[in-house]
Design a protein that fits this description.
The chain is α+β, with helices and mostly antiparallel strands and 306 residues long. It contains seven helices and seven strands.
């Protein structure tokens, strides 16, 4: 995938260079005509007149010719730049669209073979296996699980970028958090504190995307927090915040929300959780932010709905 993307970028640069060269070649006859019409022709007449009479009597305004020529050449150059930028934009947009469609199609097509492999592996695990073979089967099952999660995450990102989640519902944030808190307590038994207003808090979003947003933030805090730390979940009418204990150093903000960025190199994560959070927030014009609370050494992620 990386090699394919690099080749496409290289071809895009070649096409861009060829387009610019073609525009310059097309402009050369016009520039030549301007030069001979406004500069060279009058200069030639003046030279002939000077050689014949020893003086220049013709009323020729060279400065006017130069000004007119400069304006026309400036206009031609501006047109060439605009055409080049337009061609570049079209080319980049097309390449981006092709790459996005490739990711979406590939992720969609991978769902079936992954499901088939998992079914066959589950049948294999039910057989009477020795300890070594059973461990290998367990490792394969974990790998397939991660592959399935990665595939679904890539498909979700592609659909978000294609804006395929057009429907929004008025959801009660308090109700959604209460429902998800049961799952969070399974991940962090006795180590998660959830607090928020008792009244109804309404946000407009797709139910699946909202659940994905909340889950990814909490799971990210659980994976990268200290072993004996409690994850804090706080929300109100305008924001949702998750924090966890750190090892004393802040995360790198520039790469934190990039795809496949794993700040602590945790083998359980695929590096797409925070990227999905960022994409969902951009989709709904929300704002997600990270800060490091140095007073108590905690990582704090906040989503502002307003």
């Amino acid at each position: 995938m990386g090699r394919l993307t690099s080749d496409r970028h290289f071809l895009s640069l070649i096409r861009l260079g060829a387009t610019a060269l073609l525009i310059l070649l097309l402009c050369m006859p016009v520039l030549y005509l301007l030069t001979t019409t406004f500069y060279a022709e009058d200069m030639e007449d003046l030279i002939v007149e000077f050689e014949s009479h020893g003086t220049i009597k013709s009323d020729v305004d060279l400065m006017e010719d130069v000004a007119i020529g400069m304006v026309i050449q400036w206009v031609m150059t501006a047109v060439a730049i605009v055409v080049t930028m337009w061609a570049t934009f079209r080319l980049v947009s097309r390449n981006y669209r092709v790459q996005k469609e490739f990711i979406e199609n590939a992720s969609h097509e991978l769902q079936t073979p992954i499901a088939v492999l998992r079914t066959q592996l589950e049948l294999l695990i039910q057989e009477d296996l020795n300890q070594h073979t059973a461990q290998l089967a367990q490792n394969m099952d974990e790998t397939l699980t991660r592959m399935s999660h990665l595939n679904k995450s890539l498909l979700l990102l592609a659909r978000l970028e294609s804006r395929q989640y057009g429907q929004k519902e008025k959801l009660d944030l308090s109700h959604e958090i209460d429902r998800l808190k049961v799952k969070w307590q399974l991940i962090l038994p006795d180590c998660i504190h959830v607090s928020g207003p008792a009244k109804r808090v309404v946000v407009e979003a797709d139910p699946m995307l909202l659940e994905m947003l909340l889950n990814n933030l909490v799971v990210n805090a659980a994976r990268h927090g200290c072993p004996d730390d409690c994850v804090e979940v706080v929300w109100n009418e305008s924001e949702f915040s998750v924090s966890n204990q750190s090892d004393g150093s802040p995360l790198e903000h520039e790469t934190l929300f990039r795809r496949f960025a794993n700040p602590r190199q945790n083998p359980k994560g695929n590096g797409l959780g925070l990227a999905i959070v960022k994409q969902i927030c951009e989709y709904y014009h929300w704002k997600v932010d990270y800060r490091f609370a140095s007073a108590d050494s905690r990582h704090v992620f906040t989503v502002k709905f307003a």
